[in-house]
DNA sequence: ACGCCTCGTGAAAGTAAGTTTCATCCGTGG
DNA sequence: CCACGGATGAAACTTACTTTCACGAGGCGT
């Protein structure tokens, strides 16, 4: 199927930097060097001339221009002023905190906590900023009207998929999540027009998830991808692409920031769907809340 | 020699625009025309080329350059990026976000997204702020030295528990999570001195979790509670209490904010434990990352 | 009043920055 | 092994920026 995504990735209202780091893996090596320089210090990059930047990235001016185009700019001057604007807007990284970076070896726990929380909060905020409400809207609509919703995700993204499934289920939508690829494939094969399939993969390269999503698409279901990288393979089999904006650190392969970002997106979709049929959703939520009530012990006198 | 700067361009603290309009009267007529254009719409000016701006001000490029020097810039490019930065800074009134509140019934998706993200990010930040590093340290130490770690959680907190289990497992710690109460109880009964049990419950009132944690404590294990409410029942059976700081909205029983906060805490503990034995943890992480590599499709690349 | 100096100004020359083109290189798959 | 396609930098080229310079309009002393 040579269907191309319905949406363009040209939407980057929230941070340019975020946008760039999202596309980072889809860039060529030389362009990546440029990108990393730009992302690590946008303000400094804005001050540099193209030749200067090229030299610093150990590449040619041509590559810098190519990089500009790759991230959606007209040319270097435009990138420059956008960068300057961006740098000015962002509140400077709270001193000792390593933004987007690794945890320094000698860090004490307080530092670790601060760093993690900072990065986590950032990921959530930046994700929200660059989320395209129009795309969300369409996805919400598709889900609201779907006969059935299949949600796929492996590993860490599996948690998120499962979470989404549970959420939708609680407001009365028919949603499924499959921890196992084979079951998922079987299910995907049974989808059809009017159904929705959601594939979640941080990297966008998880072959299992892509495969299943492709299957779903072939069967006529609307396919949605949730990934951090707007040009990753999974986007090629998706009608709608939603992206997160986590700059993952190398060390913490736990990848919590990206998971939080994913959860935030899922939550937005959930609330969006719930808001479409407020009374019904509310009723369903109340019913489910009541159901677990018997498993709670009484007194929770909090508040001093 | 004859030419000395009209003004000491030392530095312009208040803002470039203010600075310019301040010395507007001291400029020559042609420069004033330029200055007025710049002041009236800095962002637009930043987008223009020098020729463009000169034309718009009905003067020559030379005059624009002179203007740049007059206001203390090196040249036009510098003025441009400063202008872009300035313009970006001044448009920044992040309109009324519904803090901690419910989503208003008539909200559109963009509002919903902003509200959710704001609350989510807040929950993460505030959680980190009130986390006691000393308590974390002790928990980290207990986990690091534990023979075995049991993690309990039900419903939404179950995801977090499961996530924690997986994280610890990946760095080579022996950790378990049980979706089922009976299995959990059985496991708790087998704990002993030197083992650690972690109970996760947002409300702190989930009887299943409390019960299991209590069992673990009876057997001599160190018990840790992770909850949003510092005086909830679960804290009574815990040696160490870690709290999240999510002000949950009534409507979104999905309770994502609290889940994010929990994940953040878990992540802090995880990194703390990993940092205790950096090299070994790193090796383990690399090994696990490598293991899933074969399930990824290669090229994360797609030309526009 | 006259010339001379000064300043503001833009035209044009000059330089540097940015952009395009193209040949080369390298890995990939036939 | 060769054909192919993408990535890359050298160099040609274009545009933007900067400097130089000459001209003209006041101001001022003689």
- Rg of chain A, please? 21 Å
Oligomeric state as shown:
homodimer
Largest sheet of chain A: 5 strands, parallel
User: How large is the count of helical segments of chain A?
Assistant: 13
Q: Give the DSSP E fraction of chain A (strand runs of 2 or more residues).
A: 5-15%
Query: Largest interface here, residues on each chain?
Result: A-B, 94 and 92 residues
Explain this structure.
2 copies of one chain form a homodimer. The first copy, chain A, is an alpha/beta fold. Chain A has helices spanning 16-23, 29-40, 42-47, 50-56, 61-70, 76-89, 109-130, 133-145, 156-170, 181-189, 207-218, 256-276, 278-293; strands at 149-153, 175-177, 196-200, 222-227, 240-243. The first copy, chain A, is built from 13 helices and 5 strands. The first copy, chain A, has 2 domains: 16-90, Winged helix-like DNA-binding domain superfamily/Winged helix DNA-binding domain (Arc Repressor Mutant, subunit A); 130-293, Glucose-6-phosphate isomerase like protein, domain 1 (Rossmann fold, 3-Layer(aba) Sandwich), CATH 3.40.50.10490. In chain A, α7 crosses α12, α9 packs parallel to α12 (256-276) and α10 runs parallel beside α11 (207-218). A 5-stranded parallel sheet of chain A has the order 2-1-3-4-5, with helices on both faces. At the A-B interface, α6, α7, α8, α9 and α11 of A face α6, α7, α8, α9 and α11 of B. The structure holds a DNA duplex (30 and 30 nucleotides).
């Amino acid at each position: 199927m040579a269907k191309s995504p319905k949406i363009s990735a040209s939407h980057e209202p929230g941070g340019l930097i975020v946008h760039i780091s999202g596309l980072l893996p889809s860039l060529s090596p030389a362009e990546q060097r440029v990108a990393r320089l730009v992302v690590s210090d946008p303000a400094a990059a804005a001050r540099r001339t193209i030749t200067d930047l090229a030299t610093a990235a150990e590449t040619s001016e041509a590559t810098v221009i190519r990089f500009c185009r790759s991230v959606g700019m007209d040319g270097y001057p435009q990138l420059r002023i956008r960068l300057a604007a961006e740098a000015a807007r962002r509140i400077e990284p709270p001193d000792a905190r390593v933004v987007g970076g690794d945890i320094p070896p000698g860090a004490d726990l307080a530092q670790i906590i601060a760093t993690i929380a900072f990065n986590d909060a950032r990921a959530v905020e930046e994700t929200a900023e660059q989320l395209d409400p129009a795309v969300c809207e369409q996805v919400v609509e598709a889900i609201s009207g779907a006969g059935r919703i299949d949600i796929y995700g492996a590993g860490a993204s599996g948690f998120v998929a499962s979470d989404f499934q549970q959420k939708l289920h609680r407001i009365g939508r028919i949603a499924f999540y499959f921890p196992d690829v084979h079951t998922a494939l079987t299910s995907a094969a049974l989808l059809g027009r009017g159904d929705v399939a959601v594939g979640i993969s941080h990297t966008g390269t998880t072959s299992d998830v892509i495969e299943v999503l492709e299957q779903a698409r072939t069967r006529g279901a609307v396919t949605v991808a949730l990934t951090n990288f707007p040009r990753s393979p999974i986007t090629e089999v998706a009608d709608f692409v939603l992206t997160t904006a986590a700059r993952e650190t190398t060390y913490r392969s736990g990848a919590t920031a990206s998971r939080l970002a994913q959860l935030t997106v899922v939550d937005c979709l959930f609330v969006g769907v719930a808001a479409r049929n407020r009374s019904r959703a509310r009723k369903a939520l109340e019913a489910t809340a009541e159901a677990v009530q018997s498993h709670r012990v009484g007194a929770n006198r909090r508040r001093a």
